[in-house]
Amino acid sequence: MSHSWETIVEVITEVHTEVATAEIALWTLGVSAALVVGSVLIPRARQWRDDDSVRLRWSSVRVAAMAAALVILGVQVSASGWLTGADVATYDWFLTHRDPTLTVAAKGLTTVGGPLGVSAVTALAALVLGWRRRGFVAASAVLGIVTVAFTASSLTKLAVARERPPQVARLVPEDNYSFPSGHVTAITALAGALLLVYALGRPTRARIAVAVTLAVTVVTTVGATRLYLGVHWLTDVVGGVILGVTVVCAAMVPLCWSTSTRARLTGTPPPTPISVANHGSDAEAVSTRPIPAASAYARRTRPGPSRRAATRRQLPVYICHPVGIRSSRAG
User: Where is the Phosphatidic acid phosphatase type 2/haloperoxidase domain (predicted)?
Assistant: First the structure.
């Protein structure tokens, strides 16, 4: 145990003493990116697609990878490491491209994407979700994700304690710390929460693509306004995106524990366990497996008109009833 603690202390010391080098940061970010991609692709494989335990493990891996990326970025920011090299150049570029019309638009958008605006949109979205889905599980999920994102952003600001850009260039008043951007964290969490609830309803791929594009556009626009108004550095915006996505990914983990939780979130009936008789057995041993709906299974297994008479004496007849499907022999 003491050896493990010494190893942890040594790693933290190395991070602090070599924070200006690219080696640790590049390896951490590279491994994190690979784990995130793997956590998305591997559970989609055919042999694991319906395995809740696989989804749970890889969802946890995804959260850990995103958290590691956020930590390494926070360490780099607190020590002005090499990852902050583009901050000044980006800041200067936005200063030289200011325009009165753009300033008015940026102030309006940053107000909508601020704490009050995001809170209002979140409350409205929760009401709509609760009404349309006849339940408050989806609404509670959205409210919880945004609330956790706000809290995590405030705590991270206190931990990193990064100063904002110079006061003279700010177009809106801000008096707290800079990293990560609270506006970007909140809007990312809100967009991700709504996208998560929408995706669990199993829409078409085209609709998913449109929803993802819309979410990315909204987050990018709010992030650009924070840079334009001179209240954040580039790494503040990137950190806000990572933190918001991390919170959404963490919220996905409980959904992998049971299919009933996902069903309550989406407002759809949970899978119904049914009993299917194994043919060729005198005792008719019964095996159970979940299906999306018992009625759909009955329709798929019902013989067609031309074969119904021929199969009546050979196969059991499947009869739907409120709790599932029972098997009986046709006389």
Answer: 138-252
Sign of torsion over alpha carbons 48, 50, 54, 57: positive
- pTM exceeds 0.85 for this model: no
Picking from 200, 182, 295, the residue whose alpha carbon sits closest to that of residue 255 is 200
Contact 246, 151 (CB under 8 A): no
Q: Which residue's structure tokens are 């940026």?
A: 106
Please check whether residue 286 is in contact with residue 276, taking contact to mean a CB–CB distance below 8 angstroms.
yes
- Supply angle C-alpha 12, 13, 17, rounded to 5: 120
Encode pLDDT of 65-78 as tens digits.
888 889 888 888 88
Q: What is the largest CA-CA distance in the chain?
A: 90
Q: What is the CA radius of gyration of the chain?
A: 26
118, amino acid identity: V
Domains located in the chain, CATH noted: 2-266 (1.20.144), 272-328 (no CATH)
* Cα 238–Cα 239–Cα 244 angle in degrees, nearest 5: 100
Closest CA to 63 of 245, 268, 312: 245
Pairing of strands 324-328, 286-291: unpaired
Mind listing the pLDDT tens digit for each residue in 188-218? 999 999 988 888 777 788 888 899 999 999 9
3-class DSSP state of 49: coil
Give dist(CA 193, CA 119) in Å, integer.
13
Extract the tokens encoding 103: 């300033």
Ramachandran angles phi, psi of 166, nearest 5°? -55, 140
Distances (CA, A) of 24 to 17, 29, 70, 287: 11, 9, 14, 52
| Consecutive H or E run containing 220 | helix 205-228
Asked if 113 and 186 touch (Cβ cutoff 8 Å), the reply is yes
Q: What is the chain's length?
A: 331
| Contact status, residue 295 vs residue 325, Cβ threshold 8 Å | no
